[in-house]
Amino acid sequence: MGKNRPTNKPPLHRGGAKELMSARSDVAVTKFLSGYNCAQAVLYSFCDDLGLDRNAALKLACGFGAGMARRQEVCGAIAGGIVTLGIKHGRGEGQDRAATEETYRKVRELISQFESEHGTCNCRALLKGCDLGTPDGQRYFKENDLQSKTCKSCVKTVVETLERIL
């Protein structure tokens, strides 16, 4: 890593794994609250571990936010988590299907943990029907601070789950 390239790796703490998880989720939440989408924030927080350029990660995950370009399908934080798992464990050129099966297993675990915490992985349901595809829905999202009240905890859950299963 170059001298001028800031790291987003969590610092080592004497408090153990829980503090490390908290530090990484803080990176993701900070990125999310600074204007990047949920998928971008999740993937960004793992760039150092994945050997992934931060700018490339932000571009790669850009279309997954708000449940896939505001279609409110699978939560963008989950999508960012799936991309993270794929980069770390996915099947590459010349690899056998065992990598695919391992990735699928980890993706199912991520989704299961998320659903047990939040009840669903569907963006529209998480936002209780708020339609991000309309100007009125976007205004409602902002006026009711759903980014902090709902989405922030989704980003945090995904990052902390990835920390355990990655």
Word description of this protein:
The protein has 166 residues and is mainly α. It has one domain (17-165). It is 65% helix and 0% strand. The two termini are 22 Å apart.
Q: Level of helix content? A: 55-70%
Strand content: under 5%
What does the radius of gyration come to? 16 Å
List low-confidence stretches. 1-17
The shape is: globular
- Give the domain tally: 1
User: Would you list the SSEs in sequence order as H and E?
Assistant: HHHHHHHHHH
Please outline the major beta sheet. Answer: none
Total helices: the number is 10
Class inferred from helices and paired strands:
mainly alpha
Please report the distance between the alpha carbons of the first and last residues.
Answer: 22 Å
Task: Count the beta strands.
Answer: 0
Q: Averaged pLDDT, please?
A: 90
In summary, what is this structure?
This protein has one domain (17-165). 33% of the residues are buried. It has helices at 17-33, 38-44, 47-50, 54-61, 65-68, 76-89, 98-118, 123-126, 135-143, 146-165.
How are the SSEs placed, and which strands pair?
Elements: H1 17-33, H2 38-44, H3 47-50, H4 54-61, H5 65-68, H6 76-89, H7 98-118, H8 123-126, H9 135-143, H10 146-165
Structural features:
disordered N terminus; 166 residues; single chain; mainly alpha; 65% helix
